[in-house]
Amino acid sequence: MDKTSLTQGVIFGLREDTNMTDQEYANLTTLFYMAYAVAQFPFTWIMQRFPIGKALSVFVILWGACVMCLGACNNYAQLAAVRVLVGAFEAVVIPGFVILTSAWYLRKEQTFRQCLYYSQNQVWGIVASVAVYFMARAVANSGGIAGWRVIQFFMGGLTILCGIFDLLLIGTPDEVWWLKKDDKAIAKARIVTNATGGAEVASWRWDQVKECFTDPQYYFSVLFNFLVMVPNGAYITFNTLLMRSMGFDPFEVILYSMPSQAIAIFFVLVPGLCVQYYPKTRFPWALFVTALATASFLFVGLTPADTPKWTKWGVYIFALPFATAMFLIWPLMSINVAGRTKKTWLTASALVAYSAGNILGSQIFRDPPRYVRGLIGVSIAMILYMVLFVVWWWYYVRENRRRDRVVAEMGLTPEEEEAERRKAGEQDMTDVQVGGGVGSG
């Protein structure tokens, strides 16, 4: 939710109170993701060397504290410095939860679980929007502290509270206090057949890093994360300004953003559930929702300026489901990639690309108030990653057929194949060493 605190704050006086230019406002997102990228490798190394639940929780608390500090800033320089810290501390959240998910759930269960996590962005986004609406109304009526400052204090405090709960509750089966010894053994044994490694503290293995650079999955993941974050960076930075350009006032922008969040929840959970029971639907769903969102962005960008605002809004609320592709494809980094170090390196590399995409997205909206060129730019990025989906899907189909042929030639029974997978998981072997085989295709 903290990502929306900036874009919500900008319609409640953030730029005016801090004397920021339009370019400086866009730069706040750029600085965030530059810090996010730089922090990936050192912080993910820390999470591999220390208990992941505790390390992740501490970073979340520090992240929330920095968001609260944004509310105390008075100029661009202060905002820029704090945004760098926010980006650095938030850098571990996605890789941390990807790894934790792989430590608890079977491969077939992970996509829906991760979609469930990510849908909370929108669930709590709706809750936060309601809270922000009433807080901003109260501030406007009372003439007290600026609305944008209240938003930062609220979002940051909520993040700190989440971090405290995380500190008490989350971790690997070995780390958590609320499982008995026997239950921990059962939880660990349950996921050994994933053959993708756990989330335990482990030594760094450079041979697994080297293997990344010979694995097509590495390049698919990096390129996808770059392209999919172009619309993301644009949306989280300019969504409210784009709605303002349609003719909505600041309070209407908050209220009328909620339907798009509800639609996004549907388009995250339904495809995620389908993929759990019908794994081969992953890429078709990703292609469908991306095409829907692309059409929405293009419609808003290419329709005449005098098009009624409700017509634009009615189409624009279908733009946010572009994020569904992220949530369907991200789990592949934990489902199909084995080896603790390999998984960590691939995830960190992908998130550096994620940061670069967000930086580009935040900088291409330079033609206010309608941002036509920016909307066309994000649409081109989405078309490119739809092409990538087709190639990636073909690769997995080919690899699955190759794996099935090898298993048939070896004459392994299902029980023997499962025993081999358990052995691979216990020995921190990579997916290439196991013999390939992927979970979606």
From TrEMBL:
The chain crosses the membrane at residues 25-43, 55-77, 83-106, 118-136, 148-171, 218-238, 258-278, 285-303, 315-333, 345-365, 371-395. It is found in: Membrane. The keyword Iron does not apply. It holds the Pfam family MFS_1. InterPro entries: MFS (IPR011701), MFS_trans_sf (IPR036259). One of its GO terms (cellular component) is membrane. It is a multi-pass membrane protein. SUPFAM superfamilies: MFS general substrate transporter. Its main location: membrane. Keywords: Membrane, Transmembrane, Transmembrane helix, Transport. One of its GO terms (molecular function) is transmembrane transporter activity. Residues 414-441 are annotated as: Disordered. The keyword Transcription regulation does not apply. This is Major facilitator superfamily (MFS) profile domain-containing protein.
